[in-house]
Amino acid sequence: MEFAFTQEQRMIMDMAQDFLTEISPSDKIREAMATDRGYITELWQRVCEEMCWQAITIPEQYGGLGLGYVEQAIVMEQMGKQLFCSPFLATQALATNALLLCANEQQKQRWLTELAQGKITASLGWLSGSSLQNRHWGSQSVQASFTLCEGGAILNGEWQQVVDGHSCDLLIVAARSPANGHIKLFAVEPKACQIQRLPLPTLDQTRQLSRIIATQLFVPESGILGAQPDQRKELELILSLARIALAAEQTGGSASTLTSSVDYLKERVQFNRPLASFQALKHRAADMKLELESAISAVYYAACIADAWSQGAKSDSALHRAASMAKSVCSDTFTFCAQEALQLHGGVGFTWEYDVHLYLKRAQSSATLFGAANIHRARVADSLLGPIERQETSYETDLQP
Amino acid sequence: MKLTFSHEDELFRQEIAQWLSDNLIGEYEQLKFRGGPGDEHMFPNERKRWEQHLAAAGWLCIGWPREFGGRGLTINQQVIFHEEYARAGGPGLVGHIGIGLLGPTLLQFGSKEQQQRFLPGILKGTEYWCQGYSEPGAGSDLANVATKARLDETDNCWHIQGQKVWTSLAHEADWCFVLARTEQGSTGHHSLSFLLVPLDQPGVDIRPITQLTGTSEFNEVFFDDAVTDAANIVGKPGEGWRIAMALLGHERGVSTLGQQMQFSNELNEIIRIAISNGAASDPHIRDRIARAWEGLVVMRHHALRMLSNPNQSQQPPEALVYKLHWSSWHAELGKLAMDVLGPEGLELNAAPYQLSRLQSLYLFSRADTIYGGSNEIQRNIIAERALGMPKEPRTKSA
Ligand SMILES: Cc1cc2nc3c(=O)[nH]c(=O)nc-3n(C[C@H](O)[C@H](O)[C@H](O)COP(=O)(O)OP(=O)(O)OC[C@H]3O[C@@H](n4cnc5c(N)ncnc54)[C@H](O)[C@@H]3O)c2cc1C
């Protein structure tokens, strides 16, 4: 056991930090926000060519780097710090894991190789249920349907909140069989088929979401991922892995809000003193620091569990619990830090010009994406206490006092 | 970065688990799960005997280097030891102040003679220590210590005059390390010295203070011309502050892993009760239990990060936030315990004031955010040392 970064991991971190500080300053973030894709293609190309992050967790046999989830978390954390707008989350954390867990050898050869080379971007859509189901961002949220047919399958449904769904080259969607409730994953190449993709205006403009609609869409056999008749279990695993990556990004975002707040307080003078010398404000910053360090411990714990899981040393349920833990801790941390940052900046924090609001909105979108903190703590509670027994209660609907 | 243990480490786990199950029996059976936070006043003599038993097998000062009589275990093995010790219900150690605080400080700053004189008593579990820092006028502002010590050339002894307060386990201890002022008229943290003082002497008066739990784990200690040999000063006169602070640094050492395992046992008990009394069906309680578990995992990995940090001379941020984290966590656990108990939590086991383990956890955990640097002081430290924010201007003393 060694709960510290190896030298190689430190190097990855330092390089990521330097590179991202260079390519993702505030004006580049704002430029990316204004594009249709939500990221600057040339910068993503530089990432693929110079850093190879798109290939981190892809095994070497497909041209990837064959690294683990700790390395992925390191890179995600640094991207979160700089609020880097990129298709990384959708491509690496969602779609790549979907292929790794579900695709057959031929499909892996084809798509993982292209992903590793940075030729294509990809994403995963699964949310297609009622708004109550969708809050869980889990397999129960899969309500789009598939029916197998001669030479392939027919998909019907509407996927919501698909990260980078309108711009990706390869779209993986989860659908359910109305016959037996089984879930399967399908890979479609949107540019070559009749799938409708609607970019959505988003609260957090640094991350693009879209709605995907399929009406009687035919997917050939080559696009039906893998042979498992029901991929509910695989989907849940993919989502847990993605939550750890997102949690790492949240950690980076939290770190930035703390740094910018402390810098601001040191500079800003009121009552003839730097604001940073007032204890009321120091203690708020100290609480942010505590939350941040907690988030870091939580994320790297979960990333280590993910690595151990991928080597067969940890069970699926250990992975799920660690992921839910990391996601809930980091969602709370980033939300708290971003809100504190705005307060500590005073009026300038409320302007469009300062970046504080970009982090606040990113915090809100990340906290909601892939399941909010309370949803994940409920899952942790289930693992500790067993599932909840729901009692039928009758309650008054009359709210008059 | 990885969390899995090597094969050798797993063999070591079997060894210690076996030893504990073979030895924590007979007269020691009653000590299982006792003597932890809030229960430190229980079975002191029986626990000391158990500590001597551990010591005889070399399981007391497991992290000390071998050349000083320790077991020289690696960090991983210490982690495993603490896990297994807690799993087996190993009792809280009366000697933790010597084992975890004074011993490591003597290893770092003590003279050869001091190491030879004092380390064996700690190693064997035959000499017990307490910490004489706080005074009525020196709490958070520890540098305001007023206890004086004067070196008398005629008898070659330090003569000590003053009062310490809140001194934990002084009534069980043989020795006290005392922070005292050795230069007349000095102020602040200059001219403080770190003295080792025997407690069994006419000049020392120990009076227990009753705590809100009705029991007393801490004391007032009065020094009225108490004496200690001139050689019993660690470092030079005037170096006391530096040494006192370094000692506090050991509070964040591996011994914290043992404490965490106690916490883990407490949380398990709360979970057991919540499931059996139905509190586990309340979504709000479930959320808090999940939070508590998450906090414990975070705490453990804070500790592992700080122990794995190659640069031990510079305190990493996870070390600076550690105290604030665990104290707040534990205080909330105490409250959670009461809320899980519900109405039953209001009844005591027996008169006059016999608390159950969880009731005393609730009450005693109120102290965690006060001693060892209160939460407010911890936040100052984090803001100033980890974030580089300026100190608050200090008013001149009147
Ligand atoms: C159970 C227990 C065991 C103990 N054991 C020992 C022991 O073995 N040996 C020993 O030497 N001491 C021991 N102590 C003493 C402990 O270290 C002190 O209580 C602690 O340092 C706080 O000092 P104080 O009680 O004088 O509180 P004060 O310093 O008077 O503080 C009162 C309140 O004011 C706050 N405060 C103080 N200064 C500031 C500031 N600058 N900014 C903001 N807020 C501030 C504090 O946080 C606290 O909330 C023990 C205490 C307890 C409760």
Please supply descriptive tags for the structure shown above:
heterodimer, A: 401 residues, alpha+beta, Butyryl-Coa Dehydrogenase, subunit A, domain 1, Butyryl-CoA Dehydrogenase, subunit A, domain 3, four-stranded antiparallel beta sheet, three-stranded mixed beta sheet, B: 398 residues, Butyryl-CoA Dehydrogenase, subunit A, domain 2, 3 domains, 12 helices, 14% strand, binds flavin-adenine dinucleotide, FAD (chain A), AcylCo_DH/oxidase_C (chain A), flavoprotein (chain A), oxidoreductase (chain A)
How would you describe this protein?
The complex is a heterodimer of chains A (401) and B (398). Chain A is α+β, with helices and mostly antiparallel strands and 401 residues long. Chain A folds into 3 domains: 7-120, Butyryl-Coa Dehydrogenase, subunit A, domain 1 (Orthogonal Bundle); 123-223, Beta Barrel (Butyryl-CoA Dehydrogenase, subunit A, domain 2), CATH 2.40.110.10; 232-385, Butyryl-CoA Dehydrogenase, subunit A, domain 3, CATH 1.20.140.10. Chain A is globular, with a radius of gyration of 22 Å. Chain A has helices at residues 7-23, 26-33, 41-51, 69-82, 88-102, 105-116, 131-134, 232-267, 279-310, 316-345, 356-368, 373-385, and strands at 122-125, 145-149, 152-163, 170-176, 183-188, 196-200, 209-220, 269-270, 273-274. Chain A has 12 helices and 9 strands. Chain B folds into 3 domains: 7-94, Orthogonal Bundle (Butyryl-Coa Dehydrogenase, subunit A, domain 1), CATH 1.10.540.10; 129-239, Butyryl-CoA Dehydrogenase, subunit A, domain 2 (Beta Barrel); 252-386, Butyryl-CoA Dehydrogenase, subunit A, domain 3. Helices cover 44% and strands 14% of the residues of chain B. Chain B contains 12 helices and 8 strands. In chain B, strands 1-4-5-8 form a 4-stranded mixed β-sheet. In chain B, a hairpin with a 4-residue loop joins strand 2 (148-152) and strand 3. In chain B, helix 3 packs parallel to helix 7, helix 4 packs across helix 6 and helix 8 (283-308) packs antiparallel against helix 10. The relative contact order of chain B is 0.10. The mean pLDDT of chain B is 93. The interface between A and B is large, with 53 and 54 residues.
